Amino acid sequence: MGGWGEGGALERDLVLTEEDFTRIRQLIYQRAGIVLAEHKREMVYSRLAKRLRHHGMTRFSDYLARLARQPEAKEWEAFTNALTTNLTAFFRESHHFPLLADHVRSRPGPIRVWSAAASTGEEPYSIAMTLSEALGSRAADARVVATDIDTEALARAEAGVYPLEQVHKLDAERMRRFFQRGTGRQAGLSRVRPELRAMVEFQPLNLLAPGWPISGPFDAIFCRNVMIYFDKATQARILERFAPLLKPDGLLFAGHSENFSYITRTFQLRGQTVYTLAPPGGRGATPGR
User: Of all helices (H) and strands (E), which one includes residue 147?
Assistant: First the structure.
């Protein structure tokens, strides 16, 4: 059993050296583009400790050596999943969804939207609900492509099952229209209705991968609260790759603490954390480079 040592720090049963922490920061940057700050050491310890205990290890150096010996092992997926942050909610940053609704109502043809950091599904399902409400019968042809690097989060998203207290934050009409309440062993849970689930296509995707298993063009791309984990060079590369996947008048939605205006001239700010493609003549090198 652990106890409390000097200065209120929890005694550790696993050994994480400075060298181990530096190596972990390098590996997650190489694989996922995530920049881990110095102060994230406690988070790294707590999240990866489960993996070490799963393998019966007591030293992070042994775990890292195992990863190095097996570059194609499934454990790399568990390593990446453990260090990925999944903070999300239905209709998070709610001002984006009326903008999306207005944008798609008058657009011809089938609507396609990409949720590039889908996490456990709340964002893509919020997009699907918005499309369903805005398009009426046309929503049957609308599709949301939902991707994420975290395969465990994506599996939960595909299942579409959430605690009732989470779904209760929606208004009563949305709860009735888009969710089924669990009974018996499923009491306390709520499941996305099949017709809403059918609008969303889930697949794993690493934004740093040389090729993306999706194709455009999209009417809108949601890439919210993920760029903050990347350095500016990585952000710029991803934004440049978004451009050809977005329709000329499509929308790019960013997170509340993200500002792309100083990263690339390919996109221009349209409103609060919402961007459009800049006119071809206005595009050029990344600002400040």
Answer: strand 143-148
Q: How far apart are CA 143 and CA 80, in angstroms?
A: 28
Which pLDDT tens digit goes with each residue over 50-107? 889 988 999 999 999 999 998 877 888 888 878 877 667 899 999 999 999 999 998 9
**Residue of 47, 66, 156, 237 marked active site:** 47
Task: Identify the DSSP state of 55.
Answer: T
Q: How far is CA 103 from CA 10, 124, 170, 232, in A?
A: 51, 17, 22, 29
pLDDT by residue (tens digit) across 207-226? Answer: 999 999 999 899 999 999 88
Nearest to 217 by CA among 255, 241, 197, 246: 246
User: pTM to 2 decimals?
Assistant: 0.79
Kindly state whether residue 288 falls inside one of the protein's structural domains.
Answer: no
Sign of the torsion angle spanned by Cα atoms 32, 254, 132, 216: negative
| Structural tokens at position 196 | 């809403």
Helices and strands, number each (H, E), in the chain? 11, 10
- Helix, strand, coil proportions of the chain in percent (round to 5)? 45, 20, 35
25 is catalytic: no
**Identity of the residue numbered 52:** L
Query: Is 75 inside any structural domain?
Result: yes
Distance CA 186, CA 43 (A): 32
- Does residue 170 share a domain with residue 30? no
Residue 157 forms part of a structural domain = yes
Domain that holds residue 12: 6-82
Catalytic residue among 148, 150, 219, 224: 148
pLDDT at 257: 79
47 is an active site residue:
yes
